[in-house]
Amino acid sequence: MTPAEARVDLSAIEHNVARLREHAPGAEMMVAVKADAYGHGLVPCARAALGAGASRLGTAFIREALDLRAAGVTAPILSWIITPGEPLDEAEAPPAGVELSAGDIWVLDGIAAAAGRAGHAAKVHLKADTGISRGGATVAGWPALVDRALALQATGAVEIAGLWSHFACADIPGHPSIARQLAVFDEAIAVAEKAGAGGSHVLRHIANSAATVSLPAARYDMVRPGIAVYGLSPIPELGDFGLRPAMTLVARVAMVKRVTPGTGVSYGHLYTTERETTLALVPLGYADGVMRAATNRGQVLAAGRRRTIAGRVCMDQFMIDMADDDVREGDEVILFGPGASGEPTVQEWADSLGTITHEIVTRIGARVPRVHR
């Protein structure tokens, strides 16, 4: 018996992939499994997504892709962040069949050099910055990036496999930047195709989760859902899109004590009991991803009722006030889940803490085992 665990329902992952495929008929699907599959467990979630019909996977870093290869995952994988000083990973990526993103000429040259050392051509996706101002070539720099990629392709070092970009505000329906980014992306595609970097084998893709469910014009050849795969709505104000949350975070009560009125609880005594009451210690803290900001705010389900965290969230633990309700050591406390049993949802935690669901689930630390069902 562990103090806490994150239970991940793989059938929910499969359900969500199927629902997302319905939203984007005819487009390939690359499921983002970066950051340990958004905290849900890299390899089991990748396998579940592929089994449900996704054809590709996406990771932020090459090491994540190589971990998938080491686990026997053979589907195409795109990794999109490369930093200077990664010669080993770059050399391993081409023979492992990991496709790489390039938004600058120095990245392209590094990929070509690594492919030469490995003796395998590297598949590259050229990234255009259409308005998010992160990775990718600017409008001014795009033609030179395309020309360099074509020159390297002529040598056999690289193969242009994709043209892509990323939205800044797809989760804000009607935001004016959406149409602007689509126009810039269309122009980038036209420039690349006119130069000779087109063809049916070159995937055009820009749609994240929000665009997958709400922007048909953004689906092109492939969509790249991330947070939606794990059952969390990319646009909460528009509903859940038929998605099922996959993670339930639970802990077992480690200690119970009866205390008198006026008892200060946890660091700083930010909570003081108003009457004789029962306190229960829950062995999860900010080292495990329960944000310190949840002090006197975050809710959990214990003994059939919602309770608010009582006092400061500590590194390894927090307290809840059980009043006169029956609670014993070993009883289960649910921090969040699908909500079917009355427990808080990830969306409720995010709303109460002024953040997004992505942060709630990806912060769950390594001390909390993932149990896949």
Tell me about this structure.
This protein has 373 residues and is α/β, with parallel strands linked by helices. The protein folds into 2 domains: 9-229, Alanine racemase (TIM Barrel, Alpha-Beta Barrel); 247-372, Lyase, Ornithine Decarboxylase, Chain A, domain 1 (Beta Barrel), CATH 2.40.37. Helix content is 30%, strand content 23%. The chain has helices spanning 10-23, 34-39, 42-51, 62-70, 87-92, 105-118, 142-155, 176-195, 209-214, 346-353, 357-362, and strands spanning 4-8, 28-32, 56-59, 77-79, 98-102, 122-127, 158-164, 203-207, 222-223, 247-252, 255-259, 264-265, 271-272, 277-282, 299-302, 305-308, 318-323, 332-336, 370-372. The strands form 4 sheets. It has an 8-stranded parallel β-barrel, surrounded by 5 helices. Strands 16-15-18-10-1-19 form a 6-stranded mixed β-sheet, with no helix packed on it. A hairpin with a 2-residue loop joins strand 15 (299-302) and strand 16. The radius of gyration is 24 Å and the shape is elongated. The model has no long low-confidence stretch (mean pLDDT 96).
State the major sheet: 8 strands, parallel, barrel
Would you identify the regions where 5 or more consecutive residues have pLDDT less than 50? none
Class by alpha and beta content: alpha/beta
Counting DSSP H or I runs of 4 or more residues, the number of helices is 11
Number of domain units: 2
The CATH superfamily of the largest domain bears the name: Alanine racemase
Taken as a percent bin, the fraction of beta residues is 15-25%
User: Tell me, what's the shape?
Assistant: elongated
CATH class of the largest domain: Alpha Beta
SSE ordering: EHEHHEHEHEHEHEHEHEEEEEEEEEEHHE
Across the major sheet, the strand order is 2-3-4-5-6-7-8-9
User: Mean pLDDT score, rounded?
Assistant: 96
| N-C termini distance | 17 Å
| CATH fold field value of the largest domain | TIM Barrel
Radius of gyration: 24 Å
Per CATH, the architecture of the largest domain is Alpha-Beta Barrel
- Percent of residues in helices: 25-40%
Q: Count the beta strands.
A: 19
